[in-house]
Every structure is written in C-alpha cells, then in structure tokens.
Fold these 3 entries.
Entry 1:
Amino acid sequence: MSAIQTYVRKTAPRGRATEQVGPFLATYSPDTTHPMLNYAIPDDGAKPTAAEIDALTRAYRRRDLLPRLEYFTDVAPDLENLLLEAGYGLERRVPLMTCSPAGFVDHPAPDGYAVREPGSDEDHRRMRTAQNHAYGEPDGEVTDDDVEKAKKSKAAGVVSALVEHLATGEVVGGGVALEIVDGTTEIAGIGVLEPHRGRGLAAALTAFLTKDAHARGAHVAFLTPGDLGIGRIYARVGYQPAGECVHLSLS
C-alpha cells in the first residue's frame, strides 16, 4: 500500500503547485477550484497535531479552496480520527483494486466495437467529450488547450484509449493509464455513454490499458472504482480489492 501511496504522492503534483504543510503534501491546481484537483496527501504514518491540521486548513482557505484530503487509510491509520476531531467530514470511502500481470484476464471489445488509442486531435476531443458526458458533465466544453494537454501527456507516458461504435463511428467512451513510476501505474477516467453500457465496454477499455501498461513494465496497476458494485466490472479483468481510499474535507 505504501508503494501505491508513494506513486500518488509523486504523480499528483504534476502540473500543480505544491507545498509541504507539516506531514501533508498540499497540491493546488492553477486553473481550477475543482475539489477533486486540489487536495492534500499525508506522509506515511502521519499523526499531525491540531496546529498542523489548522495550518493545512488555512493553506487552502487562503487560496479560496476547499480544505480536502485523499489518501489510502492503511498508510496513515490514525489520521482519519484526528481529522474528524478537527471538524473534517468524511466525503466517501473508495475501494482500491490492483492487478498484477499474473492476475490479468483479457477482455476484448464485444462485436461491433473497437478499443484503440486516439489517432488524431479529433479523436482526443471526441474521447474527452464522451468521458465528460459519461461522468455527468455534459456542459464541459473540450477546448483546443485540453487536446494539446492530452497530446503532451502521451509524451510523458500517459496512454489513452477510446472505444468506438463501428457502425456509426461514434466514440462512446474512454479512459487512461497514467505514467508508470517505479513499476506502478493508475488506470483512471474509465467512462462509457449510458446507451452503450452493460456490454462489457468498461472492462474492455480497462483490459486494453492494463495489458499495455504491463507490457510497458508496470508490475502493479491500480484503480479506485466508485464502489465495490462497480468494482465487479474490473474484477472481470483480474482486479482484486486491496484496501480503501478516503476523501475528507472541511466545509
């Protein structure tokens, strides 16, 4: 678990401002106040004082951001109670699932669909649009800057995959495998448009990205599904429960 938390600690700051506040790495995204993109990560074994928690709270308040943390409970088992005592509230618990090359189970796309990497700017735009809609953000315009960021991320080791409906050419979903660090990678952003769900497309996207990551040297791929019910999709590809991540914030 510590290796996965270390991975997040190394990759979350990419493109963000950071500062160390007591036993916390605070990250701040420059172009958005979205709470999922502005959060703190504790050091392993963190047992902050009340003053250190207060300092973290003030660091986010100064930037008009929601004071917020995301971390794997096993690496700092005493922290949650300390944060709750300081007034933080639990947003949710998220399962952690991992897959090794030995445990991987391939899951090809069903007939009528194909999973592939984006091959053009328009592919990136359509994939991101499908993901936005799948996650309930239909008004999120995909800008030229978003497309350029996606292309630059590939140079940094991020692999994207889209799923295409062959009869219509419609891109109906997508996902990414983040860069590999010390043999670990994260599979994220798996989303499929509602009319195309229930056909194994999320599993096919996950399998494509996981297989590719293993081939590129990842010993462990991990993901954090919304709940264990959704986790059954990823279990088809060989992902197994390995712990939990908690999200806490102070309104």
Note: Residues 201-215 form the longest helix (15 residues).
Entry 2:
Amino acid sequence: MNDGMVVVGIDGGEPSLRAARWAAAEATRRGVPLRVLLAFYWRTPLTAFAPSGELAEAARRFADMLVADVAREASAADPEAEVRAAALPGHPAEVLLKAGDDAALLVLGTRGRHAATGTVLGSVSQQVAVHASCPVVVVRGRPDPTGDILVGVDGSPASDLALALAFDEARQRGCGLVAVRAVETPLAPLPVGAPPVLYDTAEVQRVLAEQAVEQVSEASKRCPDVRWECHGVPGDAADVLVERSRRAQLAVVGSRGRGGFTGLLLGSVGLRLLHRADCPVLIAHAPHGAQGPEETS
C-alpha cells in the first residue's frame, strides 16, 4: 500500500468536520500523518472597489483560522494522529486533485458549505472521486458504522483493485470482508426483432457467482488472515450494495467496472453509492506510482 499521508479536504461545514474525524482515525490505523487541507478563493466582485491585497490577506487569515480549527477537531477525535494543516488558494477540486498525486488516500465529506438544498453529494466531492489519482473515501451514512468491509466485484480489473484495497482495509481494521456479485437478468437488451434468447437464470447466476468466488479467493492470498465470504445476489448492483451498506463499516468499489466505456472514470454503481450508501464509500483508484491492475476496456 502507498505509504503517503492521508489528505482530507475540508470547508468548515459539518460534513467536512465528520470527514476530518474519520480521516484522523484512518491515518492512525495506517501509521501515516493526516493533512487537513482547505482550498479557498479570495477574488470577489468587491475587488473592483477595494485593494486586492487587503482582500487576499483577509481571506488568507480566515482560511488559516478555519483549517487550524478543523485540525484541532481532528486531533481531539484521535489524539494519536499526527495532524498537519494547510490552506491553499485555488479551486477546491483542483487543489485536492493535485494533493492526491502524493497521497495514499483522499477523504471528503458528502456536501460542501454552499451546496444547494437537496444536494446529497457536492460537486467538489464528485469531481475528486471521479478524477483522483489515488483512492478516495467519501464519508457518509451512519455516524459510527460497524461491520465488515463490503466490496462489489464483477470480474473486471477495476474490481481486482477494489478487492486488493478492501482486503487491506479489512486487515488494518481486524474485521472480515463481504464480496458481492450482483447479477442482473436478462444480462443485456435484445435488438428489435431478434428472437428471444432462452437461458436458465439460476444457472447464469450460479456460474457468475462461482467466477466471483474464484476472483475473491485469488485476491485473498494477499491477506490470508482475513476471513471473507462471497455472495452472488440477483438484482441491480447499486441497489444491492446500498442495502448491504447498512451492515458495513466501509463499502469499496472500482472506479470503472464492466459496462464501462472509454472516458468513463466512475461508473453508475459508484456514483449511486456515493449518493445513497449508509457507510463511507471508497473509490478504488490506483495510488500514484503504484502498480495496479490494467485498465478495463
């Protein structure tokens, strides 16, 4: 696993405070520092009527105070964590994505301070989850989730990476791993006018479930002390994982699975989990400089 630090992006809102507390515990588990990072703007329409230097300095002072407050909150939540704080000017998504180049993990809350009413996942969190060059956790769901690590598998290289990270998380946390292979039938829509295709739904589910067991069994070799189980479950993948997230402490998905296409960095299952899961969600991007499985086609 990448030995870089854990970086948490904050804005001072309650979701980012919760993310900072979660990130402090995660950094302690990994034995790495936690960097609390705030990105801020200072240019406003008032720039035309006041010296820009004064506005910039005021914005800097406020950002420094805010990030220091959140860093203290993270330290109080986990006194063993080595917490560092930084406030950097720039667009939040751009600043966080750059920070992710040298991080082991990026951690975000579900919603920013200025999110519109009804928004579940802020645009910054979604941009970072989609485009990061390291794994990303979006902290959401139950306040103190317990249970095993939940991971979605589908036979793709992306889910191989998700499995590897899920086993690492289970080993660090001393818990088990539950892998789920959701099986939707029919598997694909038929062309207009094509004759019906007859197949045994139960047999399709059995074969795909056996393939998933083989995939998980192979991945388990990296952490032979972690207990695991694998289930083939009929239904929509996102719906199945959301339901099972109610009994998990962390849900892990690949950044792109089967059915993905060139340019799609995070599939619909991952996006729906980010909006609906009842526990934190880890999007399994390969860490910067790490040797991960090859990309899916």
Note: The chain has eight helices and ten strands.
Entry 3:
Amino acid sequence: MPHATASWLVDNTALSFEQIAEFCGLHILEVQAIADDTAATKYTGRDPVRAHEITMEEIHKGEANPDYRLVMVKGPDPVRRTKGPRYTPVSKRQDKPDGIAWILRHHPEVSDGAIGKLIGTTRNTIQAIRERTHWNISNIQPKDPVTLGLCSQRELDALVARTAKKAGIEAPTDSRLAGDREALIEELRRERETQQRLADEALNAEAAAINDVATILDPFSDNKGHV
C-alpha cells in the first residue's frame, strides 16, 4: 500500500518528497499530490513503523539529511493477484474511456493489449474509442490516467519505456520538473522552516501570556521586600 504509506510519512515526518517517493516506489508528483490533498483518492495513512518495514531511527536519519536514502527493514507482504483484468473501483470505471483516449492520443505506439492491462479494460472498448464508434464518444475527453487514479505514474512510464524500446524509438522523458526540481525542493524546505518558525513563535507567545497572567495574579512576586 505505497500511497497509504506515503500519506502517513507526509503527515508524520519531515522527510522530503524525494525520500518518501523513493521509499514507497512512487513518482514525486504523486507524493506532492498527496501532500497538497489534490490526489484523485483520499488515502488513510498506513504506519510503516508498526508494520516493521522501517524504524524511527531510520526516519530520523532521513529527516536530518535530505540526501539520505531510507533503508527498509523488510519489504511489505506481496499482494497476490489472480489472473484477469486489473480491478478498478466502481467510482472510477466511468473515467476509463477518458484515460484510454489520453493514451491513444499521446502514446499511439502502445498496443491495445498493453493499454487493456494498464487500465483494466477490453480490446473492444479500446478499438471503439480509437475508431470513434464508442457509444459515448461525444462525451469522452482525453485525461491523464495517472491523474484519474487508474494507474500510477511509475506504471505508465514503465509501459511507455518498454514500448519505445521494442519499437526502437527514444522514450519520452518526464520534463514536468525539468529546470525547477531544485526550486521545488528548496520551496518545500522553506515552507517547512516557516511552519517550524511559526510554531516556535506560537509557543513563545503562549509562554509569555502565561507569565503575564501569573504576574497579574501575584503582582508582588517580583518585588519581595517592598511595600
């Protein structure tokens, strides 16, 4: 459950998005979407410490050094799947045609069989969308299947890379973070520092308020010996 684990790490640690993404096997944009609460699905956090997959000492090492790569104690128990198409929640099945249309438009080299396995659909549906004979073709809008929650960014990237290799063409690279990767990391660090500073200021203000109340209740506490 990498997304649920990532959600817990975002909420309960000061690890960088890169560290969390690498530990959970996700794309950094997926972790960012979870942190910004813009992911297609709201995940309930899963504690990897209680699952004995990582120790708090290892997490503290990562928090102290953003370049540190977390070491997993043991891998999560593998999820056994039976043969058959990928299961898609009922709430997302209506989004499948949009995801299929996006792949057909942006990655026409991907075979129908590969699309079917990735999205969890049939060749007949893919063919109907390709030939624009689908019963609902007028309402189908190409949308990124990762954004729709139909697959992960890593799965899509791996499929495109495999297809490009077989076809002897250069696989497209994800350039969405090109040029501002470091800026994104620096911005996230500044946000964390700002949040920490605000928290410290709030604590100091609370302590000062308590001292003021104590002085009002006992005005002579600091003037002993004076009338």
Note: The mean pLDDT is 78.
